[in-house]
Amino acid sequence: MWRSSLVRALPTARAFSTAGIPRGAFAKLNDADVAHLRSVCKSVLTAPDEVAPFNSDWLNKYHGQSQLVLRPKTTQEVSEILKYCNEKKLAVVPQGGNTGLVGGSVPVHDEIILSLGNMNQVEAFDEVSGIIVCQAGCILENLDTYAGKHGYMMPLDLGAKGTCQIGGNAATNAGGLRLLRYGSLHGSILGIEAVLADGTIVDCLSTMRKDNTGYDLKQLFIGSEGTLGVITKLSVLTPPRSTAVNVALLGCESFDAVKAAFVQARQNLGEILSAVEFMDRQSLDMVMSQQPSLADPLESACPFYVLLETSGSNEAHDMEKLEAYLESVMEAGTVIDGTVAQDAAQAKKLFGIREDITLSLSSRGHVYKYDLSIPIDDYYKIVEDTRAALADHDAEVVAFGHLGDCNIHLNISTLKYNDAVQKALEPFLFEWTAKRRGSVSAEHGIGTHKPRFLHLSKTPDAIHMMRQMKQVFDPNGILNPYKVLP
Ligand code: FAD
Ligand code: MLT
Ligand code: ZN
């Protein structure tokens, strides 16, 4: 759960990964540019203290030196801004809720920040199909509340839902807690309106589920991290909201038992299974260390935990299935301890522990964050190998993630940034992942952190095609330069 009241204790800022990136041959912003941009966009920030928060990312790792934030309200404004910036060769970074974890949403140098937060209107909702059409700056949680009033829900859920925007979610192809059930945004997003670097408005804002009329252009913007166009509107298919939701936290003795609990959950719970999340004991300890009032959720301390959610429409039927599942995994010794939430408040609390890991890590000190796809048999091996590699360092290794999607969040925490730890982790972890044909970014994206490692998950031909696409969409390279492509 995203709790704005839990203020992050920010560690000393250190802009490490961007420090060596040379500035591209872009124009420098001048007074005439600012005057023109003011004439096309009403909301403009230039005061250093107002611009500052837009220059730093959520992790406080990446810091730009932009002098200008533009906050358009309409697609037309976005178009006029980009047309001008393209003609003048001024670089631009699109920014949503600025909750990205790979440094994609902040400038590397002095790029103009195009913040989408003022484009926050829902334009239409179809009660029959559950399709919502909205502007890109709508906050995910607000959309979920809106859909909820009509008996529907957003198909994605993540800890940053109170701040991240649907445009940012699309631009990063965010995964989150519900991907297991509702699939990726490549399936749920039915249409996109985007503005290209030269100001062209691309209207692919279909609200049809089926549309086989040639290349599906909207897919290119999903996961493009603001490098191909600025997403201004979206249509999203929202599923019906489940009326019966159960949450169980299970403790396991080994990672093999975690796998067995997952396999059996898929077999026994089938269509009602909606989330399977994983965390190790070190993750729970991390949250408890930052929230001393939090009690151990199970009677015994277990080395591994699985958080299960079922969502359906028949409370009695779902509970019967869940109880049968729990009985069988406990009897087999797969699960050694567990608890089932008795009401919505308890369910929220259990999910809150899982969602608070991120905030707890960044509150503790410096965090080295890796978001990897790893084949299930090696899912926890990477954690053990990392602990071995860091045996001589004072570093906590914490692992959690979307088990159902083979997506592990491997986090290393030190009280302060430590260069030796950084060097021990990279390229080691990315190469380890590539050897098993995993992905160096399961869901957070490439941003500024990983362009150097893209070749470990994409072939040279694929990277060449990506460059060609960038050239077609943004020939002057003004949109989110230095990100994604090496
Ligand atoms: P930003 O951070 O502002 O931007 C992210 C990228 O998208 C940047 O490259 C930016 O240039 C681009 N962008 C933003 N808006 C637009 C637009 N309208 N048009 C074009 N480009 C745009 N991610 C997951 O995938 N799963 C999770 O479970 C998850 N949990 C998180 C939990 C916490 C506590 C935090 C802090 C982050 C989490 N994230 C997660 C990462 C992050 O929240 C997601 O990547 C989210 O989708 C980013 O949305 P945003 O609006 O904050 O985008
Ligand atoms: C999560 O699943 O909690 C997020 O992706 C955030 C993170 O990896 O820290
Ligand atoms: Zn995640």
TrEMBL record:
Pfam families: FAD-oxidase_C, FAD_binding_4
Gene Ontology CC entries for this record: mitochondrion
Span of domain FAD-binding PCMH-type: 62-241
UniProt GO molecular function: FAD binding; oxidoreductase activity
Cofactor requirements of the protein: FAD
PROSITE patterns: FAD_PCMH (PS51387)
Name of the protein this chain belongs to: D-2-hydroxyglutarate dehydrogenase, mitochondrial
Biological classification of the source: Eukaryota, Sar, Stramenopiles, Oomycota, Saprolegniomycetes
